[in-house]
Amino acid sequence: MNGRFLREEITIRNFLIILLAYVTLFAQRKFKTDLDYAVFPVNEKVGTVEFYYSFYKNTMLPFEKDRKKFVAGRLEILIKKTKNDSVALRKVYDFNFPYTAEVPAQNLIGLLKYDLSPGKYHCVLVAKDLSANVNSDTAFFDFKIRIPPPDRFSLSDIELASSIRNYNVDKHSNFYKNTLEVVPNPSMIYGRNFSVFYFYNEIYNLNVNAKCATLKVEHYILDSFNRLHYRKTRFYGRKNNAVVDIDAVNVKNYPSGVYSLVISVSDTVKHLSVQSTKKFYVYNPGVKDTLLSNTSAADLLATELESLSPEEIETEFQESEYIASKAEINSWNKLTNTDGKRKFLYEFWKRRDANSSTLQNETKIEYFKRVQFANKVFGNMSLKKGWKTDRGRVYIIYGQPSEIERFPNEKDSRPYEIWHYENIEGGVIFVFVDFTGFNDYRLVHSTKRGEVSDVNWRSRIMN
User: Fold this and answer.
1) Domains plus CATH for the chain?
2) Which one of 16, 161, 197, 459 counts the least CB within 10 Å of its CB?
3) Global pTM?
């Protein structure tokens, strides 16, 4: 599940995690959904946020009804205002759709949209397979409903699509938008399965304070090394208030990796410009990247960190603190600029590279695989990201348990889990309890040295 997904702006190491998940997805039949979003301003009082989702049917447990096979899914949406943590929207949608074994990779793609007042929001989306309650996928998004500036042109977010067409369009389709049918691609992955990269965005207030007859619009596609792969320039007349901007780019020869689409709109007379950016991913296993073959592991790590924004740098260290020493945390807290923090993270992960002879830092990749897994599995509707939960912390530090005992409905007891690690200190356990009923399991007892210990934990979980 994507998104910052929180929506997370994903760099090289995240792409490797996503790539691994997709390669192993169908062999393991692990429940999988994709989620993405885009915001489209309406006026000074309201904007529209669109959520795009995709359920992978072949990762869901089918059931039979009237001699036909179906799969059933659920999508739970919670949106809170960041300012005061108040609930702006809470929705639950259930889906039933046919399951066809002959087309196992077929999936259900959908769109939900809501009008919200201007402000900052935090959103949690939980997707579930209703035929197998243990199957769920979670995504977190932070987004903003912006008021369009009244005195100049502006841009919407960018929607990534698997197809855009303006012929034989069903006006009643959920994907109908401004005379077009725009089918979203929530996975944000192109290449082997989707060789054409489609995108849609809107430009507003073209005719406001117009000093020249046209606006210049440029499309750029850059890879994670800031190499330019695509550039296109077009001009829009300024008679109308708004215009739809779409494009299609063939990426079948792009090397696998993380890419950024940049849309720039400028008034060349007044020297005003605005930009909108969207990351996407290309998976072309047969296309070789000649730059990578001549790149060292250290160069790759440095380049990866250079591509991170200041906010992403902060997030990466926060997620890494579980394995940081007190001295490293103190050193980090003394840093005041982004370049210094990039250098710190470079040294931090370089010290932990178990095999410096390989291109990738396998230790870092494995660590953030665990972070990604924790976000997908242990996040909860109280808006706590999975890596911040007690189960997420234990999973990230110690890895997959040897065994998990789950007790969701034991009489006179709150839901709890016991995790067993047979290869640590001769065998240890971790006990987690859901005191609230909102999937927020807290660690109450462990036999691992240095962890919380309470031999009377059973008395605490009784209803």
Assistant:
1) 1-147 (2.60.40.10), 151-286 (2.60.40.3880)
2) 459
3) 0.70
